[in-house]
Amino acid sequence: MSQQQEHTVRMLNQIAANFAWADEDEATARVLDHITRFWSPAMRRIVRTYAESGGADLAPTARAAALKT
Prior knowledge:
With about 70 residues, the protein is mostly helical. It has one domain (about 5-65). About 75% of the residues lie in helices and about 0% in strands. The protein contains four helices and no strands. The longest helix has 16 residues, at about 5-20.
């Protein structure tokens, strides 16, 4: 994993952790909303590509949101 990919994955997991209080569907929607509003297309592409290749280091809600970008 590249350093940029590792950093982006770590940030996405941190965002997902902030919504741990919500059920999976709501948490995924909130993570997706956040990255759609605040992340550049390049950052979204990095996590989507990583998620599509299995996304081993992504939290479940982070992976689900990444796949919807």
